[in-house]
Structure formats: C-alpha cells, structure tokens
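ESCALATION

Customer reports they have been waiting on this structure for their group meeting. Please prioritize. Original submission:
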Amino acid sequence: MEIAEHIEILDREGRLLAAAAEQAGTDAAVPTCPDWRVHDLLRHTGVVHRWAASTVADARPSRPAWPEAPDLDGADLVAWFREGHAGLVSTLNAAPSDLECWAFLPAPSPLAFWARRQANETTVHRVDAESARGGTQTALDAAFAADGIDELLRGFHARAKSRVRTPEPRVLRVRTTDVKESWTVRLSPEPPVTEHGDTVPADCEIAGQAAYLYLALWNRLPFPQITGDTALATLWREASGI
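Update from on-call: job pushed to the front of the queue and completed.
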C-alpha cells in the first residue's frame, strides 16, 4: 500500500475511535482489552500518536522517550486524543518523502514505516473502542487487513522480542480466503521466520477472510478456521502479545 493510503486510513480510524469512545463514555469497560477502560485506551493511543509525531517532526535518529499521559478524563480526554491524532496526521502529511528518522521495523522508508504502523495501531484500538461502545463494528478493507497481517508476521514477530517459539521446528500457515494471500511462519527456539506464500508444508493452518483474520491474529477475535495441529494456534493465543 502507498504512504498516502496509510495516512488516509489513520485519519479515518482515529476519528472513528474518538467517536466510539465518546459514545461509550471514558469509564466504559473495553471487552477486547479486559484490563482496560476507555480512558486507558485513549491515554495509551494518544501518547503513541504524540510519540510518533515527535519522532517524525523532529527527525529523531533514536528512540525518543514516551510522553506523559495527561491527568484528564471525560470530554477533556477525548478532546486531547483528537488533538494528538490530528497532529499526527498533519505531521505525516507534511513530512518529506526522504525523511530520515528512527524506526523499529523494516520498511521502504521511515515515513512508510510510521504511516503504516500508526494506521495499524489506530485501527486495532478503534476496534477496541467500538467493542466498548457496542453495536456494529466498522468494516475493515481486506487489502489493508492483509497488509496489516504482513506487518505483524514479518515485522513484529521477526524481532527477538517475539515469544512465539517452539522447542522443535514447526510450521504455521496463515491464509486469507478472500484476497488470496498466505504466509509461512517457521517456528523454532529462535524468533519466527515468515515468508510469503506456501513455501513448505505446514503443521497447522489458520485461515479466514483478511479482515477477520487480522483481528484474530491481534487476539481481538477467535480464529475463524484451524486445520492441523491446534497446539500451534493455542501457542499464538498465549504467546503473541506485543
């Protein structure tokens, strides 16, 4: 996906998040994050937005410190969130294509990384806010969801921090059934190694429509379809938290 597409998604998803939070109320429980209430969700995502915006705006060469979350609640907290989200969108739109700054996952450029990462960060937490509000969830674009699965598998879980590991080599397949994408995740005592496509036979396959599978892999929904060794799907559930 293009940088402009990710920024557009970030813009839309942040607005939806704020609206859902406002409708739910900041003291509402967040079913998809059982330890959180909406005020925790807004503070977390609002801090992430400001952290990302400062990294891009100041072209920071190394990881910056986290900003402090404000001692706000209710309408003031929602307004604070909206301000930070709008600032991030504006910062990314104004950033030069040759921006050089710190990033923590592979990407074609730092700007591409931050646009993609913040689009996904905000989308997952928009789903959390809508779970607190109740009612119909806003639909996810299948192509964006597949791109987000790729970031999760080939970005986050390629890092040494990933706890999705097995004592002996195993293979997990992740397959979307609507946009026809698949990934082969090689598990071992080391961090997972993920390749596009069906490169080797799999011990377990998790499959489903891209939008549903995206949220399932972020542990917001149950897995839609599992074939083979279900222990690998259980491992993902138990160990894949970011």
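Sent to customer with the following note: The longest helix spans residues 110-133.
Escalation resolved.
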